[in-house]
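So, can you check this one?
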Amino acid sequence: MKFGVLLVDGRPVLGTVIGNRWVDLGRAIVDYHRIVEHKDVTQPRDVGDLLRSGFMTRSFYRRVAEFVQRNGRLSDYALDGPEPSFLRPWRPGKVIGVGRNFRAHVAEFDNKLPTEPVYFSKATTSCIGPDEPIVMGGDYGRVDYEGELGVVIGARGSQVTAEKARDIIAGYTLVNDVTARDVQRGDMASGNPWFRSKSADTFCPLGPVVAMAELLDWPVIVPLATRVNGEVRQESDTGRFIFAIPEVIAAITRFITLEPGDLIAMGTPEGVGPLNDGDVVEVSSPQIGVLRNPVRVGRTECPA
């Protein structure tokens, strides 16, 4: 139960895996509703459409998969061909990052351990997909990679308790919380927030897919690794969070309502470091895949 936007014959296609094959999920949903439910629905274009429409649930996935397989339609929707090329799964409504959520990462910057979740926002215009370039302005100074697990919100939540946090999670993805480190340090020294250093265009790669929440055990403990030019720079797992996912959701929703399509980047482990022109950075987890992005110096344009 993974969902992504694939590049097929030069066009984006919302897909999922059924019977070990990537299929055109948007078409299958439209046909399922027309033939089985006897009603018309708008074809979803990306994971955001799935989340907002309520289609990204285990029960709905099973109904559509059964429709495809029992009616012999797998070949009709299959996206066969070379290795899939993925685009950005969706543009989140909000991106909320969690800072200082691994003890070893706190130590490597000689910061104090937080007593409650530290969170910040990233501009949604910073979001890009797999294989899109991270573009560093020539005047940014040091720019760091930060590989993280992303929590994808599937239901509206305000004042959510830690015990109920799982109820609003639709799935998980990978995030590279790229940070203009010199800019961040300067802003912090002036008593200013982190927003600018975290929100430059292209500084929030995410993907390659969204894994449905049920694919991961609860509590969520998955390996995370970041490689630069094939060399492992970060290697940890989400069992080492200072504040686990339920605590983070409870802390955020005490003040901020989360909505379907929002994204929480759960914090990075130790081993962060600078990126250079020509690098290739990869964030990976076996359950989700590999988020790969090249790096270059230049001018950026806001992703569409």
Q: What stands out?
A: The longest strand covers residues 204-212.
